[in-house]
């Protein structure tokens, strides 16, 4: 459902009013965070701290592992949620919110750029037209008539979020507004080249996994591709589960690949599925297999090899239909 410009401004005004009215704010994001999850979560926290120094702001969730250079989480008790405003960024549905205590506050706000299939929260602001939740929050700051201050620390985080979700500005979600905001961010006092370099780094194990994915990749006649990453591979390479994400874009570097899936075996024998596309819409396929996401970048689940075969056939059918 689309909203008018007037309605959009009202939502932003309500969110700002909630931030102003609350002295204690707790911000969550999704599990297994990517740069936009952390960038939007902690970037918003840094913005509130710079704008309202007397407020207490916490960022919570599980370990950030390979993104620990970007931000760290706070460790808070259940009691901290009493009379707190809770904001969840970059998280489409409640099962993916990292730390289930997000429901314990007195008010809940959802801010996201994924399709709004689960409109949770007392206030919900979702805009799928922007590249990232980090970009969305920058429109919030820029539209606040100076009430929200963009600090250097927040700019670094938002920049990382935008770079991550646009694939270094290579994805088609990069718009003139995206680049304008990126230019605004790099005018602040941080080193964007250092952020870019850090985001481009992989471990030796991740590099070897990418090579193994190329070796295992199966490409259909219509340009559908898939590969399976087993638990044995992950363990032999000494990788944590979140480090496997570095191999998701591997197949897309091949010119003959139109859309692809990476199936990552889980400890229980099921598979986490990463779906990506250069054109055909694949989030409907993800939704049909206990997932969802963006039209060209989604996630799903497969319970066994039979479901993998089913998804491979369905992906080819989607490509052929386009």
Automatic annotation (TrEMBL):
SUPFAM superfamilies: DHH phosphoesterases. It holds the Pfam family DHHA1. GO terms for molecular function: nucleic acid binding. Residues 24-162 form the DDH domain. Residues 238-320 form the DHHA1 domain. This is Phosphoesterase, DHH family protein.
């Amino acid at each position: 459902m689309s909203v008018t410009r007037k309605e959009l401004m009202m939502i932003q005004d309500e969110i700002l009013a909630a931030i102003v009215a609350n002295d204690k704010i707790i911000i969550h994001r999704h599990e297994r965070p990517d740069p936009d999850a952390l960038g939007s979560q902690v970037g918003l926290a840094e913005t509130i701290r710079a704008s309202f120094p007397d407020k207490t702001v916490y960022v919570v969730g599980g370990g950030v592992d390979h993104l620990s250079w970007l931000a760290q989480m706070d460790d808070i008790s259940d009691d901290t949620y009493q009379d707190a405003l809770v904001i969840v960024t970059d998280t489409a549905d409640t099962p993916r919110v990292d730390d289930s205590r997000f429901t314990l506050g007195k008010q809940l706000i959802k801010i996201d750029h994924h399709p709004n299939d689960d409109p949770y929260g007392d206030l919900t602001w979702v805009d799928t037209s922007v590249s990232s939740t980090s970009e969305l929050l920058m429109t919030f700051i820029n539209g606040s008539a100076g009430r929200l201050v963009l600090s250097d620390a927040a700019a670094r985080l938002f920049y990382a979020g935008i770079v991550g979700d646009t694939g270094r500005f290579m994805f088609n979600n990069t718009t003139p507004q995206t680049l304008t905001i990126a230019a605004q961010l790099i005018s602040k006092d941080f080193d964007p080249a250092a952020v870019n370099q850090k985001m481009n780094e992989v471990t030796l194990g991740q590099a070897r996994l990418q090579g193994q994915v190329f070796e295992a990749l199966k490409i259909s006649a219509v340009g559908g591709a898939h590969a399976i990453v087993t638990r044995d591979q992950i363990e032999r390479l000494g990788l944590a589960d979140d480090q496997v994400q570095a191999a998701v874009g591997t197949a897309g570097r091949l010119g003959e690949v139109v859309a692809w899936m990476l199936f990552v075996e889980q400890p229980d024998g099921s598979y986490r599925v990463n779906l990506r596309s250069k054109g055909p819409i694949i989030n409907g396929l993800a939704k049909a297999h206990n997932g969802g996401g963006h039209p060209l970048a989604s996630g799903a689940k497969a319970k066994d090899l039979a479901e993998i075969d089913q998804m491979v056939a369905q992906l080819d059918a989607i490509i052929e239909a386009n």
